[in-house]
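batch job 7 of whatever, protein = DNA-binding protein
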Amino acid sequence: MAAKSTPLAVKVAIYQRLLSGDIARDVGRMYVISMPTVLKYANDAVAELRLLEAVESSPILVGFLSRTVKIQCYQYVDDEVVRDLMAPILEPYLGQAEKINFASRESADQPLSTRVSRTTEEDFQAIVAEMSQSSHPGLTSSALLRDIVEDYIARYKANGRPLPPTLVHQSQTPAPVEPAAPALDGKALMKDLQCALREQLQKHGIELPQGDD
């Protein structure tokens, strides 16, 4: 099943927030997307707006939208003429975006910053930054997360635990009537995750303090 595309109105609303002075990180938190996705959507919005007749007929807007989003943001704040010309163009999109509850969607592309506390995210990013500058040049947070997840799955299988059926399989095959499966051992699960994280960090030369078992 193909992923649903992000509505243009939402992309324009994201772009407008950047123009208004909101930083990409805050916009990302608001819409539950990553900073790179914020910038991608803003550029997508610019590409679509440039095709509008109202833009093509205005040399000022053609020149404005031909610049990078970063330069546009600097200019927009102080350029009243550009703001006045852009307002009627952005307005209908912003009205549509208000009716779309985009941030509450369930999506696999939601960034780490929306799934954990701010402190946890900042600590993790600090570890990634240190590793990328020392033991593992070029390391990204996505790459380290992938290593941690893959290591955890390998550990899970090694312990003789069968993987649960996929959601797609569950939706197509009626579940048999049988006694409920035993609940997961939360403490054991957390211990396995901590071990997987510790081993991955040790591979990159970082030692975590041993906690109490």
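notes: The chain is about 60% helix and 0% strand.
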